[in-house]
Amino acid sequence: MELPQRKIWLNFLSLLPSTLLSVLTIAVAFLRFYDQEDFTFLAIIEQPREASNRLTVAALVVALVAFGVEWDRRNRETARQEAETARAENERAEERERAAEERERAARRARIQNRGTILQIRYQIEPNEANGQALRDFLAFLQEYGE
């Protein structure tokens, strides 16, 4: 329950520098180009030029903060993408390895089956003791290893 609330605050705080920068830029422009003749409430500011300069410095600081926030966000995004790419590559490598092992097992089974077929054919063509013993040895091998 705490995690979504934290994410909302992080999203809000990440928007704050750029929003504050926009407001400060508007305030600087407002103080530079207008005076109390245009807007009567500007009479409360004794030296609009000095206030504008201070707001300009504040806007520069906020711009640096906004740059830092964006830099951090992009670094986190790049790291996330690299981790995702590495994970996908690992999965593909594991899949290739499993496929290679399966091909190796299938080839081994085929060799064993071919050996058994050859021994049966030899025994049928020439039913002597040597071929019979080879066939019995092969049957013992199959019973022992279950293939």
What does this structure look like?
- This protein has helices at 2-33, 48-125, 129-145.
- α1 (2-33) packs antiparallel against α2 and α2 packs antiparallel against α3 (129-145).
- The model has no long low-confidence stretch (mean pLDDT 84).
- The protein contains 3 helices and no strands.
- The chain has one domain.
- Helix content is 86%, strand content 0%.
- The protein is rod-shaped, with a radius of gyration of 40 Å.
- The protein is mainly α and 147 residues long.
- The longest helix is centred in the middle third of the chain and has 78 residues, at 48-125.
**Number of separate structural domains:** 1
Give start-end ranges of low-pLDDT stretches. Answer: none
Instruction: Report Rg.
Output: 40 Å
How many individual helices? 3
Termini separation: 55 Å
- The helical percent reads over 70%
| Element pattern in H and E | HHH
Largest sheet data? none
Mean pLDDT: 84
Per the principal axes of the C-alpha atoms, what is the gross shape? rod-shaped
Number of strands: 0
SSE-based structural type: mainly alpha
Beta percentage is under 5%
Supply database-style keywords.
147 residues, transmembrane helix, membrane, transmembrane
Would you kindly provide a brief summary of this structure?
With 147 residues, this protein is mainly α.
How are the SSEs placed, and which strands pair?
Elements: H1 2-33, H2 48-125, H3 129-145
Helix pairs in contact: 1-2, 2-3
Transmembrane segments: 12-34, 54-71
Keywords: Membrane, Transmembrane, Transmembrane helix
Region (Disordered): 78-104
